[in-house]
Write a structure and sequence with these properties.
This protein is α+β, with helices and mostly antiparallel strands. The chain has helices at 11-55, 61-76, 159-169, and strands at 77-79, 82-86, 93-94, 103-107, 122-131, 144-152.
């Protein structure tokens, strides 16, 4: 016959609850980490697509910039009418100005028009902040990590820039502009 002690009642329930709390915290950490990595991957795709739109030739540089902004807004904003609202606020929020929030379209910090080695750095940069996974319940801003996605594909000269360059080299009487 088995003798039951009064002090061991509920031991299995307490062990289960403690293990469950640890397991849920562990799973929440990895879910948040996966969301951060997924948004990073998606942001890289968005900057690449925006940079490709910026690369395409257009009538003016503003036209090229507008096309890049449209693609970035379509991919990263909740809806095109409110480009400040992020599509995935649980994973990260765009940081800084630009449309959408956090996007910078144009030349990078190393760009120098007079130096051919650095003139390639034109494209799209997206900066966003995400809460570190181990600080899920914190409201403080010092547990945010800043992530950056950049895509520098360059930019085709606009029609106006091409025409101005041909006029400078050949003269205004040139008919077949090549632009």
């Amino acid at each position: 016959m088995k003798v039951r002690r009064e002090t061991e009642e509920g031991q299995a329930v307490i062990e289960f609850v403690l293990a469950l709390v640890f397991l849920m915290a562990f799973m929440a950490f990895f879910v948040k980490l996966a969301l951060m990595f997924a948004l990073g991957n998606f942001a890289q795709y968005a900057t690449y697509i925006g940079s490709r739109a910026y690369l395409s030739a257009g009538k003016t540089q503003d036209d090229q910039t507008q096309r890049a902004q449209e693609y970035m807004t379509y991919l990263l904003a909740k809806n095109p009418e409110s480009p400040g609202a992020p599509r995935f606020p649980a994973a990260g929020i765009g940081q800084g100005g630009g449309t959408p929030s956090g996007a910078t379209i144009g030349t990078g910090s190393f760009f120098r028009a007079d130096d051919r080695d650095f003139s390639w750095q034109e494209g799209v940069r997206y900066e966003f902040r995400s809460r570190l996974p181990m600080m899920l319940l914190s409201d403080r801003n010092d547990d945010l990590v800043t992530l950056v996605s950049e895509s520098w594909l360059g930019r085709e000269p606009t029609f106006d820039e091409c025409w101005q360059d041909i006029e400078t080299r050949v003269g205004a009487t040139f008919v077949d502009n090549g632009c």
